[in-house]
Structures are given as C-alpha cells and as structure tokens.
C-alpha cells in the first residue's frame, strides 16, 4: 500500500518558474477547448504535453546550461521517486510508441545495467542524492525482466547506496507472460532482491487481434502458468494490464479479455486505452469512435465491479484489496502528489519543481546517444525544458486523471494557489455540467465526466497546448497522425503501471 506524505507548501522553486510566453498567457473559452478535446480524443489524454518540440520550444534550455540548470532545479527536493527504463523487448508490439530498441541492439542488455548505474552515480554527485528520500522505484520498459537478476541487482544496490528510503516505498517491475511462464527461477531471484510488486501485460486474449498487434501469443495456458510462478516466487501484489480501443475489437471479445484477467486472480487490473500516435497502427485511429470507447469502459467497470475490483470514476487501475490503490508507490506519488522524479535509462523522463527533461535516445530510440553521453561523463539529457508554472500545473493535472481526480491539497502545496482559483472558469464549467465534482479532498470525475474525459482533460492543458489542439480540430482529421507532426517521440517515465503506466 502506498503511503502518501502530508502535502507541504512549497511555493516557487529555488530555480524559479520560467516566464510564460505570450502563447501561455492566452485564454480560450472552455466550451471551445472541451469540444476540441473531444474531437481530438486520440490525442487529448494524460500524456502531456502534445507536440512538445513545438509547444515547449521557447522553454528549451541550451545544451551548455543543462547540468547547472538540473542541479538548481532539484536543489530544494527532499522527496522524489525513481524510474529505470529498460528498453529491450523480444519484439516491438504494433501498439507501442515507447523507447524500445530494435533486436540488433539487445545483445548489450546486461552491459546496459552498468550504464544505468553510471548514470545514477553521475546524478548522485550532481544532486547529492544521499540526502533525498526515495518514495518509490519502478523498473519498466520495454521488458525489464529481460535483464538477468544479477544485472537488476546491480541497479538496486546502487539505488540503495545513493538514496534513503521513505516509509511505504516499494519496488515494482514489469514482466511478460512468456518470461514469467518459462523462467520461474528468475522470478524467485527478483523477489529475493526486494521487489515486492510485479505487473504483467496481457493486453488482449483474442488470437487474431494478437497477431495484428504483433504480440507474443503463448495462449491462456501460458498466462496461467505465469501467474502460478509469480505466486510461487512470493509476489503478493500482482497487476495485470489490459488494452482496449483497438479498431475491430468487439465488445464481446473485450468482455472475454476482462473475464480472463479476473480469473487469473491478480490484486489489480489496469486498463489502457490504445493511443495511436506514433505507432504502426496510427492509420486505424479514425475507425475507433468515442461510442466504442464508452461502451468498452462501461462494460469493464461493470464486470470488474461485480468481481470485487473497485475504482472511483475515471481511475484506470481497479483493485480488489480494500484500502489499497493497486498501483506502485512510484505511480501513486506521481499522480496524487505531483512528486518530482528522476528517470534513468534510454529516453527516460525526469521532472523537478521547475523543469522536465527527456534522456538521450528519446528521439532516435537508439542506444548510441545515451552511451556517448555517459562515455563523456555527462548526464545523458537530450532535452531540458525550464517551464512556467502554468505548464507544470497542466502536467500535474493531466497525469492526475489516471486516478480520475486532481488532489486539491497537493496542488495547493505544490503551486501555492488553490486549484479552483487558478482554473476558476474550467472548474465552474465541469461542475455546472456534472462532469466533475468538488469534494473536500479533490476535484473528481463523475460517470458523465468519464464518458467525455478527453474534453475534460483538455480544459486543464496550458494555453500553448490548447492552441495546438484548436488548430488540429480546425484542420479536421483525427489527431493520432497529425499530432505527431513536429513532435519527437516521447520517452516513457509514467506510461503504464510501473513503466509504461508511466505513459506521460
């Protein structure tokens, strides 16, 4: 169970927020933004920002100032989370837009662990990490269990050397049914390293759709063996990932996928809507309607609820354990508290109170840029953005919708202003229309808001990104392909639960 620290008023960070550009001081009618978000429903989601190479270009830090800016940005940070990206997979699934290297580079997988340790050592020196409290660690990818347990142990040993652990912190890792079914000894070794939560991607169970997705298809029997081995290894916290929103995915087939996941008996089940941008399936986005999405989410909520898996409206992870979130501490802290985080590895993302960075390899999806930076003894940062408060607020709000609510106390502590004051028009818009409700703790989605989630999320984007959405809507067409124009591939630091849960 994730332990949330009491929010502490931070005020402006030591580095100071950047001055907003004119584009980020504009105001748009909420009704127009809401409509644009619904129109561009394949783009308006928790993965913020959109087209950052365009919308964030004015905030990019010059290469010569990156390391000094990073040190200043993290100077006031006491509590943070850590994400380690392992970019290796047996094959790249057709739905994947994340930083995954091609097969020819996978031979260096175990050397990669040493490189991650080297990066962590650089951060330890630059940021004096020994005085920071770590509230959660996720190993994602990619497929981190491709690495040998000894290699993962090297990374964890380095983390223990360089950080203090906060109460309630945990370590979570991702795996595949094939690895869990065929390498039970590996699971035992991972549990012995102190990893106490594991997430396994099933996605769908229909053979024809699996072939379309280029997803390994070991069958239901292999998935059952995988869960059996996970339990024998001692894991008591298992999450299973499912995906919906595919072209041609029938309601009946989706129901069968959800029912199969329930039968496996995980503590949590996380649902991911397909995001078409920058994937091999981008051309299919126009075949998926909001009506299909609404039917699939409603069905899943009903079937999961009947089986004892609970989640408030809009939350993507359903849990059958009372009082627990079902997510890792890393993800919980990022989503609810907006906690800063460091991302290690190829293309990983890092967030301070005033900056956001993408590691080398985020654009190229190649190991060489990351390796060259480390060989030169510098932090492997590809792009660093010094952001204004409004962009950082938008980042926190967008990510918060993973849990279906924006924590009002955490927002006020982070930015020194109440959410309902900063977003007065937007809050009035969603509350008056029954899309969200103000509770003592949060601004939370209602069932009606879940059905129109993409429009709701867009209301909390920063003006420069809203303007981009409005242009796309005016141009017509779906956003999955247009949204990629001018935008580098984003890295994964909050895409799924664990790693890919960290799709933001």
How would you describe this protein?
The chain has 504 residues and is an alpha/beta fold. It folds into 2 domains: 22-55 and 389-484, no CATH class; 67-332, Aldolase class I (TIM Barrel, Alpha-Beta Barrel), CATH 3.20.20.70. It has 21 helices and 17 strands. It has helices at 30-39, 52-55, 66-74, 109-127, 149-162, 177-182, 184-192, 207-212, 219-232, 251-264, 290-306, 329-337, 367-375, 389-400, 408-415, 419-422, 424-432, 447-451, 453-458, 463-475, 479-482; strands at residues 79-86, 133-141, 164-165, 171-175, 197-203, 238-244, 268-273, 317-319, 341-344, 349-351, 355-359, 381-386, 405-407, 436-438, 442-445, 495-496, 501-502. Strands 1, 2, 3, 4, 5, 6, 7, 8 and 9 form a 9-stranded mixed beta sheet that branches. Strands 10-11-12 form a 3-stranded antiparallel beta sheet, with helices on one face. A 3-stranded antiparallel beta sheet has the order 13-15-14. A hairpin with a 3-residue loop joins strand 10 and strand 11. The longest helix is centred in the first third of the chain and has 19 residues, at 109-127. 57% of the residues are buried.
């Amino acid at each position: 169970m994730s332990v949330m620290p009491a929010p502490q008023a931070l005020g402006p960070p030591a580095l100071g927020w950047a001055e907003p550009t004119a584009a980020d001081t504009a105001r748009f009618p909420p009704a127009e933004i809401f409509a644009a978000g619904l129109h561009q429903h394949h783009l308006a989601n928790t993965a913020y920002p959109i087209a950052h190479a365009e919308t964030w270009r004015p905030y990019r830090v010059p290469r010569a100032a990156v390391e000094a800016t990073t040190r200043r940005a993290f100077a006031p940070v006491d509590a943070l989370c850590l994400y380690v990206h392992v970019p290796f997979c047996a094959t790249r699934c057709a739905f994947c837009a994340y930083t995954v290297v091609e097969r020819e580079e996978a031979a260096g997988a175990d050397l990669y662990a040493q490189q991650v340790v080297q990066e962590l050592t650089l951060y330890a020196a630059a940021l004096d990490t020994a005085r920071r409290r770590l509230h959660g660690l996720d190993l994602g990818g990619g497929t981190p269990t491709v690495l040998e347990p000894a290699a993962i142990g090297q990374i964890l040993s380095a983390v223990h050397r360089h950080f203090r652990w906060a109460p309630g912190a945990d370590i979570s890792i991702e795996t595949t049914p094939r690895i869990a079914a065929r390498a039970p000894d590996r699971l035992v070794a991972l549990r012995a390293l102190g990893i106490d939560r594991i997430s396994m991607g099933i996605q769908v169970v229909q053979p024809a759709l699996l072939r379309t997705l280029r997803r390994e298809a070991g069958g239901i029997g292999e998935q059952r063996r995988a869960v059996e081995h996970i339990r024998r290894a001692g894991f008591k916290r298992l999450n299973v990932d499912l995906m919906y929103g595919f072209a041609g995915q029938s309601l009946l087939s989706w129901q069968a996928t959800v029912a199969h996941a329930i039968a496996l008996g995980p503590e949590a089940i996380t649902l991911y809507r397909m995001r078409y941008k920058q994937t091999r399936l981008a051309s299919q986005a126009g075949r998926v309607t909001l009506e299909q999405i609404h039917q699939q989410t409603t069905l899943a909520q009903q079937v999961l609820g009947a089986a004892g898996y609970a989640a408030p409206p809009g939350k993507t992870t359903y849990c059958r354990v009372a009082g627990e979130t079902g997510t890792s501490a890393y993800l919980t802290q990022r989503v609810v508290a907006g906690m800063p985080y460091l991302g290690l590895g190829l293309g990983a993302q890092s967030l301070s109170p005033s900056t956001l960075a993408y590691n080398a390899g985020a654009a190229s999806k190649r190991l060489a840029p990351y390796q060259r930076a480390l060989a030169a003894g510098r932090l492997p940062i590809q792009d660093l953005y010094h952001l204004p408060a409004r962009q950082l607020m938008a980042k926190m709000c967008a990510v918060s919708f993973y849990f279906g609510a924006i924590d009002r106390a955490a927002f006020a502590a982070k930015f020194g202003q109440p959410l309902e004051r900063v977003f007065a028009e937007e809050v009035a818009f969603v509350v008056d229309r029954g899309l969200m409700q103000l509770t003592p703790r949060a601004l939370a989605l209602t069932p009606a808001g879940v059905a129109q989630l993409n429009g709701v999320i867009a209301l909390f984007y920063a003006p420069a990104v809203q303007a981009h959405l409005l242009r796309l809507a005016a141009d017509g067409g779906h956003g999955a392909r247009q949204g990629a124009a001018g935008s580098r591939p984003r890295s994964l630091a909050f895409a799924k639960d664990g790693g890919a849960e960290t799709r933001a």
